[in-house]
Specification:
The complex is a heterodimer of chains A (104) and B (557).
Chain A lengths: L2 H10 L1 H34 L17 H39 L1
Chain B lengths: L3 H6 L5 H7 L15 H24 L3 H6 L6 H12 L2 H14 L1 H11 L1 H16 L4 H5 L5 H35 L3 H49 L4 H11 L16 H15 L3 H5 L7 H32 L23 H50 L6 H25 L6 H24 L5 H20 L2 H7 L13 H17 L4 H8 L1 H10 L10
The chains are: A mainly alpha (104), B mainly alpha (557).
């Protein structure tokens, strides 16, 4: 079967629209979950640095700035795991179905 | 401003801002150190092992696909390590630890800035890159646009970034090796250039990938070992580590919170934009996405790479904080034994001194060898990206219009690699003792304002046309280069003027915005028949990007 007709079938398959919609929404939400805290963090670092000087525990040494920065890194990594597990599972199986139906 | 040593290390991505902003003494006139036998011995083992791998890889490198992408047969995990190896450089290790050592918490903020692009690359780009690209990022940029003009322009964008980086890396290599190994600068530059040529010319992507994987393991292993040795000295207590650091640091308690480096919100925003999107426009990083068999593995690559890079950043933060009390109070590490004066070897040396303090000469030798290996891995990735822009984009596609045979293209690739190696050596020698920091800002400016806009818009925006992409790219190129010249680093510190015309060292806030605006304006006003065809061709590209239908497959072996 020729490539254009396969593409037409993919385009016409409601599952394709579902795949693209779900995946795009998911990617945008996750990007915001990374970028909003990051830019909030950067904004306060440059305008309100004293906020980060609060001690983690009463009379302790470590300020809250250190675990916050570490959380942004660790959280960013965990979110890549969240995306990969859904994309490689749910999204890829819809993709496989769409391709299979188009090649029929 | 720190000069040579910093500059050389700055070659890598990470170095950029560390060097620009890091405090620390000037490094002019780095003293050549006595020859370090254990470091050289360990480095020789690394070289022999990687040459062995290159020989094996050469046997497997028969087609252009083998050469550019290792036949697409790298697994997600391997590629994740290799991406981490491409991205984490000697500058990560030396630069971040040095930032924390001198500035405390500000160093951590920089580490976060260098990290944050990775999740975004995964969410928005990884699978589309893999589905649309074959060998180079120009494949994607010119997918439905004018093959001659857009591909040529994208190749020029790649080569510009590659050349700026190569110079910085070579200058850095010469100085670092002079310092750590006690070898002559020129000799070190030639060694790095020749090894790079050998890896790339004979072993292509397969050899480069394995050099990067080995280097990533060494760097991670070395960093973690050093961290454990160090934590043992503080009774495994971070509270203890930080209280000693506060006692020893000249900022005292202030080192625990953000300080002067990020005080200007616009400057901080421009820097973070440049780093976030510059990372996504680095040709040698983009190229790594074509080495895996499919989008599934491409996603896994970024997951692993992000984990390794994040882990390594956290390790370097601990090392930097530990160095404050261990290195900062020991007269043996200061010139003339004056605690608080100039560090021996310059401001980037805290982690090296820390290695010596907690692990002795052998461990210092090991870490020095790792730093050298790190530079080699990064320059190899750069040379490969440059060679493929020349042979695949300019020669095979633009000049030969796709009629070149695989054998011809391979020959051009090899000549290009050798040519780039010789160019890198000559430039490395020519820029000896120069302040090359501005080249790092340039590389990031060009990557974020030239490569990134055309790449992301070609994947996401149906309305992009050749005219818009070309003029937007030119606007990004001219403004990013121009603004770096007018920035404090170049206009004041290098050219000796009294005040900078453009107040920020990183141009992205203006140049990226301008590139996107010009691209948009000249695309939406483009009413030509060609533009209409290009918009129509988006449909096919879109389906391929979303489903992988028709994507380049792994070559059979």
């Amino acid at each position: 079967m020729s490539l254009p007709s396969i593409q037409e079938k993919i385009r016409g398959n409601p599952k394709f629209a579902e795949l693209v919609g779900k995946r795009t929404r998911f990617a945008i939400i996750l990007s915001l979950v990374v970028l909003l805290p990051y830019y909030t963090f950067m904004f306060f670092v440059s305008t309100q640095p004293q906020l980060f000087a609060t001690k983690l525990t009463e009379g302790g040494i470590v300020t809250i700035g250190w675990p916050i920065a570490a959380l942004i890194i660790i959280g960013g990594w965990l979110l890549t795991g969240v995306y990969v597990s859904r994309a490689n599972g749910e999204f890829d199986s819809i993709t496989a179905e769409v391709l299979k139906e188009a090649r029929k | 401003m720190k000069r040579s040593l910093t500059a050389l290390i700055a070659g890598s991505l990470l170095a950029v801002s560390f060097t620009v902003f890091a405090a620390g003494g000037a490094i002019e006139g780095v003293e050549k150190q006595p020859i370090n036998v254990s470091a050289i011995a360990m480095f020789m083992i690394f070289v022999l092992a990687t040459l062995g791998i290159t020989k094996w890889a050469a046997g497997k490198t028969k087609t252009t696909a083998d050469f550019y992408t290792a036949g697409g047969g790298i697994t997600g995990f391997q590629n994740g390590l290799a991406i981490a190896g491409d991205y984490m450089s000697a500058a990560t290790l030396l630069g971040i630890t040095s930032m924390v050592y001198f500035k405390g918490y500000d160093g951590f903020v920089y580490a976060v800035c260098f990290f944050i692009g990775w999740p975004i690359i995964l969410f928005l780009m990884a699978e589309r890159l893999r589905n649309l690209g074959k060998f180079t990022f120009a494949d994607i940029a010119s997918y439905r646009l004018d093959q001659n003009r857009i591909r040529t322009f994208a190749a020029i964008g790649s080569l510009t970034v590659v050349c700026f980086y190569l110079i910085v890396q070579m200058v850095g290599a010469g100085q670092l090796i002079q310092l750590l190994f006690g070898l002559e600068y020129n000799y070190a530059v030639v060694v790095v250039g020749i090894l790079m040529m050998v890896y790339v010319t004979f072993g292509g992507m397969t050899a480069t990938t394995w050099v990067q994987i080995i280097k990533a393991c060494l760097l991670l292993g070395g960093g973690i070992t050093l961290m454990l040795l160090t934590l043992a000295q503080f009774g495994w207590s971070l509270d203890n580590l930080f209280s000693k650091a506060i006692e020893s640091h000249k900022l005292g308690e202030k080192m625990m919170a953000p300080g002067s480096l990020m005080a200007d919100p616009i400057s901080a925003f421009s820097l973070s934009l440049g780093l976030l999107f510059g990372t996504a426009g680095l040709p040698h990083i983009m190229m790594r996405f074509f080495t895996v068999p499919n989008a599934k593995e491409a996603r896994k690559s970024v997951f692993y790479a992000t984990g390794f890079i994040g882990l390594f950043f956290l390790v370097t933060i601990v090392l930097g904080a530990a160095a404050i009390s261990i290195v900062g109070t020991n007269p043996a590490f200061f010139e003339g034994g004056q605690v608080g004066g100039k560090l021996i070897g310059g401001g980037n040396m805290p982690v090296m001194h820390l290695a010596k303090a907690v692990g002795g000469d052998i461990f210092l030798g090991f870490l020095s060898a790792v730093a050298f290996a790190t530079i080699l891995a990064v320059v190899s990735g750069l040379a490969l990206a440059g060679a493929s822009a020349i042979s695949h984009d300019l020669y095979a596609r633009v000049i030969k219009k796709g009629t070149a045979s695989s054998a011809q293209e391979m020959r051009v690739t090899r000549f290009a690699s050798v040519g780039l190696g010789i160019t890198a050596i000559l430039l490395g020698i020519a820029f000896k003792d120069q302040n090359v920091l501005f080249l790092v800002a340039l590389a990031f400016g060009v990557a974020s304002s030239v490569n990134f806009p055309v790449l992301i818009l070609s994947m996401y925006w149906k309305g992009l046309t050749t005219r818009g992409a070309l003029w937007g790219g030119i606007a990004g190129l001219v403004s990013s280069v121009g603004l770096v010249i007018l920035s404090p680093t170049v206009w004041v510190k290098i050219l000796g003027n009294t005040a900078a015309i453009f107040p920020y060292d990183h141009p992205a806030i203006v140049s990226m915005t301008l590139a996107f605006f010009v691209t948009w304006l000249l695309s939406v006003t483009d009413k030509s028949a060609r533009a209409a065809n290009e918009k129509e061709a988006f449909e096919e590209q879109y389906i391929r990007a979303q489903t992988g239908l028709g994507a380049a497959a792994a070559s059979a072996h």
